[in-house]
Design goal:
The protein is of the alpha/beta class. The chain has two helices and eight strands; from the N terminus they run E-H-E-E-E-E-H-E-E-E.
Length: about 140
């Protein structure tokens, strides 16, 4: 087995709209309907620029009929954060400030990367890694 990249993250929430809005408006993911066997009022999929559904957002009970453990209090273990590799630090900071999203920054000079940390409306910590752009 070889792990190639992060496939997706599923976030459970009792209040779907603000979580969807966060991933759409702050992280600029595209909101779409899930596969037709899932209730689109209880599940939303968020797509990246490569057309991959990398964040799934669901409400309690949305996945139970599909044999997936679905309890908002969860027994799936601790999720500390989700990290995405990004481009465009300045537009990201401007968007966070425009939406009033609290954030903090960490510079990792040894690999020429800036990390931006924030939290989604469910409390999941999001790490956005922006490598310096090649001036060439």
């Amino acid at each position: 087995m070889l792990i190639k990249r992060l496939d997706h993250v599923n976030i459970r929430t009792r209040d779907l709209p603000p979580v969807v809005a966060f991933y759409r408006d702050i992280l600029l993911l595209e909101e779409r309907d899930p596969p037709s066997n899932l209730d689109r009022t209880m599940v939303r999929w968020m797509y990246d620029h490569k057309d991959d559904p990398i964040v799934h957002i669901s409400t309690p009970g949305a996945l139970s009929e599909h044999g997936v453990y679905d309890n908002i209090t969860g027994t799936t273990g601790g999720l500390d954060h989700v990290a995405f590799q990004c481009v465009g630090l300045d537009p990201l900071i401007e968007r966070l400030e425009a939406h009033g999203v609290p954030w903090r920054e960490n510079r990792v000079e040894v690999i020429k990367m800036t990390q931006v940390f924030l939290h989604d409306p469910t409390g999941v910590q999001i790490e956005l890694n922006v490598f310096d752009e090649d001036p060439a």
